[in-house]
Amino acid sequence: MSENQTDEELMLAYRDGDAGAFDVLYRRHRARLYRFLSHETGSPAAGEELYQEVWMTLIRSRERYVVSAKFSTYLYQIAHSRLVDWFRSHGKVRLEALDEDAPEPPAEACWQPDRQLDQRQEADRLRHCLSQLPPQQREAFLLKEEGEFSLDDIAQLVGVNAETIKSRIRYAISKLRNCLGGLLA
């Protein structure tokens, strides 16, 4: 399997029985997908559970895969569906604070306790501010920032028009700026 193949080519190869193609797809998408799900649920444990469900859904439905959009859109449509189910089953409508034992970013080569404390406090503030966003704005913002999707891709994922997504992201950024005291660029 070539690392140069598109995601769509890899998924078609996986559909046709090439397990190595799945390995490449998994490596390409695992970190962003996990971060997205963890931020959306507000819990690394719930994010991990949904992360596994998304990949299992993809595996179970591989024989039915046809290229109708970018693979990442297909993957995040599965994630979106699992999130909707998760929120319904847990009766949740907003993000709670992330667990304290959430994975930390890699440490810098030179240990700087003051800087690490500042970064952790900033991350805590951002998580708090994200938790204050309405779910639709938070989802659109995280798909754009964590998932690196275009407005059109997000619109297709959640089933609304691109202008609606643009508005949701604009409102989310405005609310995050206010919450963070104007720190968000």
TrEMBL record:
<protein>
    <submittedName>
        <fullName>Sigma-70 family RNA polymerase sigma factor</fullName>
    </submittedName>
</protein>
<dbReference type="InterPro" id="IPR013249">
    <property type="entry name" value="RNA_pol_sigma70_r4_t2"/>
</dbReference>
<dbReference type="InterPro" id="IPR013324">
    <property type="entry name" value="RNA_pol_sigma_r3/r4-like"/>
</dbReference>
<comment type="similarity">
    <text>Belongs to the sigma-70 factor family. ECF subfamily.</text>
</comment>
<keyword id="KW-0238">DNA-binding</keyword>
<dbReference type="InterPro" id="IPR036388">
    <property type="entry name" value="WH-like_DNA-bd_sf"/>
</dbReference>
<feature type="domain" description="RNA polymerase sigma-70 region 2">
    <location>
        <begin position="25"/>
        <end position="91"/>
    </location>
</feature>
<keyword id="KW-0731">Sigma factor</keyword>
<dbReference type="Pfam" id="PF08281">
    <property type="entry name" value="Sigma70_r4_2"/>
</dbReference>
<dbReference type="InterPro" id="IPR007627">
    <property type="entry name" value="RNA_pol_sigma70_r2"/>
</dbReference>
<dbReference type="Pfam" id="PF04542">
    <property type="entry name" value="Sigma70_r2"/>
</dbReference>
<feature type="domain" description="RNA polymerase sigma factor 70 region 4 type 2">
    <location>
        <begin position="124"/>
        <end position="176"/>
    </location>
</feature>
<dbReference type="InterPro" id="IPR013325">
    <property type="entry name" value="RNA_pol_sigma_r2"/>
</dbReference>
<dbReference type="InterPro" id="IPR014284">
    <property type="entry name" value="RNA_pol_sigma-70_dom"/>
</dbReference>
<dbReference type="InterPro" id="IPR039425">
    <property type="entry name" value="RNA_pol_sigma-70-like"/>
</dbReference>
<keyword id="KW-0805">Transcription regulation</keyword>
<keyword id="KW-0804">Transcription</keyword>
